[in-house]
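look at this:
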Amino acid sequence: MVSREHKRGSSLREKFHLLRSITNSHAESETSIIVDASKYIKKLKQKVEKINNETTSEQSFRESSDPNPMVTVETLEKGFMVKVTSVKNEAGMLVCVLETFEDLGLDVVEARVSCTDTFSLHAIGSSNNDDGDIMDAEAVKQAVTESIRTWSDSQA
């Protein structure tokens, strides 16, 4: 017959093992597992806060009356983070932006696109230029903006 204490201890060990696996902790002691879990929770809170801030900024963008797409470009270690948001979602805008990436010699490494009521693209482009040409964020922004403007004019 197994004692109640033994069952409770076994259950507690299982829960610590589960917590350790969820938080990707390599700690052995229960205290260290809890510390790692706390750090993991803080990272998750930061991610949630960042997503909430992005959502808030996109909502405020939607509420603005400017029909022109907003393009921002950030330089990353090996490429660029390109964000395009527009209050209008027009068929073909995504293709236009991706063709511009191709023209610039950027490979799409990761992308998030929303084309429901509005248009939102967050894409990471990695430079595949091996000829030594250095591209800057402003050049990417100008190329994407001009491409969208030209495409938009042709749709009117």
